[in-house]
Each structure stands twice: as C-alpha cells, then as structure tokens.
Design goal:
Blueprint: H1 4-13, H2 22-26, H3 29-36, H4 41-52, H5 60-72, H6 76-84, H7 98-104, H8 110-121, H9 126-135, H10 141-151, H11 157-170, H12 179-187, H13 193-200, H14 205-218, H15 223-232, H16 236-249, H17 254-257, H18 263-271, H19 283-286, H20 291-303, H21 308-317, H22 325-338, H23 344-349, H24 359-372, H25 375-382, H26 391-404, H27 411-419, H28 423-435, H29 438-445
Helix pairs in contact: 3-4, 4-6, 7-8, 8-9, 8-10, 9-10, 9-11, 11-13, 13-14, 14-16, 15-16, 16-18, 18-20, 21-22, 22-24, 24-26, 25-26, 26-28, 27-28
Length: 452
C-alpha cells in the first residue's frame, strides 16, 4: 500500500485530521504558554507571533484552545506578552472574540487599547477580566480609567480570582495607585463572600494568601478550620496566618500547635504559652529541631529569670539509652547556643567513640563544641574526630577548625580533609591551608610522602 492510501492511514494512526493539522496544534498551546511563562524573550515572542497569526474566521477550535491555555497559564504570562507587544511593527490582532480583544489590549496604540477595553468590558469570563486588570495599570489615563471602572463591577468568583492574580503582580507599579486596596474593600462587602471563599482555595499561591488574609479579617474561618489549616495546609504563609489568629482567639490551643510540622507555627505556639509554664513542659521546645523554636523557648525562660543553660545541663545529665535521638541532638544543639566553655566536657561525652552515638547527635555535639570550646583547645578536642565516618560530622569538625583555629591545625589533619570525598570538607580544608604560615607548610608540601 503506497501513495495517498498510506498517507491517510498514517494520519489516522496518529490521530490527526487531514485538513490543516488543527487537532495537532490544539494540543500545543499549553506547552507553548508554559515555555513562554518562564520569561525567555524568544519564547514569549514566538507565542505572541502564533497568537497574532491565528485566523479570525474558521479557526474557532484553535482560538478557543489558545484562550483556554492563556487563562490557565500563570498571570505573569500576560505581563510578558503585554511588554513584548509594544515592539515596533507588531501587527494588530484579528477577531472580535475575547482572544482578539485581549491581544488588541496589548497594542502600542492607545486608541486600539481603549477600544479593546470597551470590548472586554462587555465580555464575561476570567480572560476578559484579567485583561481589564492588566490595563488598570495602563500609562494612558482614559484607558486606565475605563479598565478600572469595568473591573470594579465584577463579582463572579472565577472573575474575581483572575483579577486578583493580575493585580497582585501589578501592586508595585505607581500607576495602579490604591486599586488593590480598593478592590479588597469591595470584596469585604456581603455579595462578594463567595468570591472570597473561592480565593481561599485558589491554585495561585499569591492569590490564595491574599484570600486567606481577607477571610481571616472577615471572620470566615471557624476554629476547627483554623486549626486544620495551621497544621496541614500546604503553604507556609497560610499556616502561619491561621495559627496566629487561632492563638489570638484561644491561647489554650498552643499545646496542639506544638505538634505542627511547621517550625514557624511551633514558634508561635511556644510564644503563646503562659509565663508560668513549667520548665519540664519546655524541654521539647528547648530541644526542637528548629533553631527558631529553641530560641523562642529560651526567651520564655529568660523572661522569668531562669537560665536555660541550667535546664539543658540538667536534661543532658539524664540522657540514657532509651532517650530519643532527636531529643538528645536538640539538647546538645541548644546548649551550644547558650552555654559556655564549662559545658564542653558534657558535650564531649556525647562524642566518645566507645559509646557510638548516632550521627545526628554527633553533628549537634560537634557544632556545639566548635562554638563553646576555647580556640587553643579546639584542635586537641576535634582533631581525633577528623575521620568520622559520617559526612555531616566531618563537615562540622573542619568547619569549626577553619573558622576558629586554622593556624593551629597540623598538616596531617589538613591532609585528611583534602582527601575526603565530601566537597564541603575539602573546601574547609582548603581554607585551613590558605591560613597556614608558609614556614610550617613548606616541609611537608615539598615531601613526596603522605602523613603517617
């Protein structure tokens, strides 16, 4: 089978229609919009050229696919297309549908943009509203005034979300004035509550944060929703906003928020604990894996005149085989942040090679010793641990030596660091070598033998 019959069979196998390849093009708009959304000028220009080349008649399916891809693309893409369309010689878009009006709203000619805004004001849907929001920052006063007036009368949830996504990207432009604040005030009115609830679950991160903050101000969240969002939401800003509002309403929820996976939420919970909370209840926050949580817990003790270092020493003295590894590592890290040189022997017991402490504990203890030990004793304390099998522990050893005692590191330890497989360790060993006096480094560097 050859000729036209074979060509027709191949087209059917690939799922293409013979006339013009329209089915093939329809599936490419998402890909083209995604590539242009990364900000490369060539990709943005190519997408704009494809959009302007679309015929106005007989291409309804293709124009609908292109408009749908633009609507689903990140809001930044509209700003990029608007900037690219200002170039001299850009042809005028064809068609009186939403896509044609949106493309003509990018035109360099202010009269063309004004006519396009008037057309978009009579159209519905997220794409039309996004175009109006973009023109609300136009540099021509009549265009900007018409776009703003048309934008402020939209109340459908999907249209409000499209407007907010673009307005948030334009908030830093002087021509927008207080439009975002005005639009926020408009959403506070009762008819727009559905739109606020839609913003709370919007896929765009900036719009969702805007919606959550607005919903909190309007009292749209119940306490159960606040707790659930603070513990499980995928966005850190939304978690923090809801946690702070929950603690403002009910400080007794601090105990439940201490179990949150977000360190910022745990820090807020620790700060909300009562001033007379027992020190034993602060042990877990004092040994938290996050530094900001440990610091907040220490401030609780400082506020009532109790030194946190005493709590750390007492708890480290009670460490046994059954103590959780994470707790021991947190206690060592916390003591290194508020202790003194007298705490070094207790920390060195965690580094005893006969006890074989877990890597997490060794890293925290080494970091603490590197901070607290006198510089003159640092090489004697950490030098024997330069060959620790854990990469993180070895990194802590050489980082401490490079930062506080580079001139006293013997050549053998420098050589160990230079041949370890970890790049961070080799960089620290290089910093130690550059700080060494040449008179001490020259005899070994001229020798062909390795250290014994």
């Amino acid at each position: 089978m050859t000729g036209p019959q074979e060509a027709g069979l191949l087209r059917r196998r690939r799922g293409r229609r013979p006339a013009g390849g329209r089915a093939e093009l329809s599936g490419c708009w998402d890909e083209w919009c995604g590539a242009a959304g990364r900000g490369r000028h060539a990709e943005v220009g190519a997408l704009l050229g494809r959009l302007l080349a679309l015929p106005a008649e007989g291409a309804d399916q293709e124009r609908a696919a292109a408009l749908a891809a633009l609507t689903a693309a990140p809001p930044r893409l509209l700003l990029l297309l608007d900037r690219a369309a200002r170039a001299a010689g850009t042809p005028e878009a064809r068609g009186n549908d939403v896509l044609g009006l949106l493309l003509r709203s990018f035109a360099p000619d202010g009269h063309v943009r004004e006519a396009a805004v008037e057309g978009l004001a009579c159209c519905g849907g997220p794409a039309a509203v996004a175009g109006l929001a973009l023109r609300s920052a136009d540099w021509v006063d009549p265009v900007r005034a018409r776009a703003t007036a048309a934008l402020l009368v939209r109340s459908a949830p999907e249209e409000v979300a499209a407007a907010v996504r673009v307005l948030l990207r334009l908030a830093g432009r002087s021509r927008t004035g207080g439009l975002l604040a005005d639009y926020r005030g408009l959403l506070c009115r009762l008819p727009h509550r559905r739109a606020v609830r839609a913003l709370v679950v919007d896929a765009d991160r900036a719009a969702r944060r805007f919606g959550v903050a607005l919903a909190l101000d309007l009292g749209e969240y119940a306490r159960g929703d606040l707790l659930r969002t603070a513990l499980r939401d995928r966005d850190q800003v939304c978690r923090t906003l809801c946690a702070q509002r929950l603690l403002d309403l009910d400080p007794d929820q601090a105990g439940r928020l201490l179990l949150a996976g977000d360190a910022a939420v745990r820090a807020l919970a620790v700060a909300a604990l009562p001033a007379d909370v027992p020190a034993t209840r602060l042990v877990a926050p004092l040994a938290d894996r996050a530094r900001m949580v440990r610091a907040t817990a220490r401030w609780q003790l400082y506020g009532r005149g109790e030194p946190p270092s005493a709590v750390y020493r007492r708890q480290l003295g009670r460490v046994g085989r059954s103590t959780p590894v994470r707790l021991v590592a947190g206690l060592a890290a916390g003591l290194g942040e508020c202790g003194d040189a007298a705490d070094v022997p207790a920390l060195m017991r965690l580094l005893d090679q006969r006890r074989s402490s877990p890597p997490m504990v060794r890293r925290a203890a080494l970091r603490a010793v590197g901070r607290l030990a006198p510089a003159d004793d640092l090489v004697a304390l950490l030098g024997p641990l330069a060959m620790d099998p854990d990469p993180g522990a070895a990194r802590e050893v050489f980082e401490a030596l490079a930062a506080r005692a580079p001139a006293g590191v013997p050549v053998e330890i420098r050589w160990i660091g230079s041949v370890r497989p970890e790049a961070a360790v080799r960089r620290a060993a290089t910093r130690i070598a550059t700080a060494q006096p040449r008179t001490t480094a020259r005899p070994y560097e001229q020798s062909s033998h390795g250290p014994r």
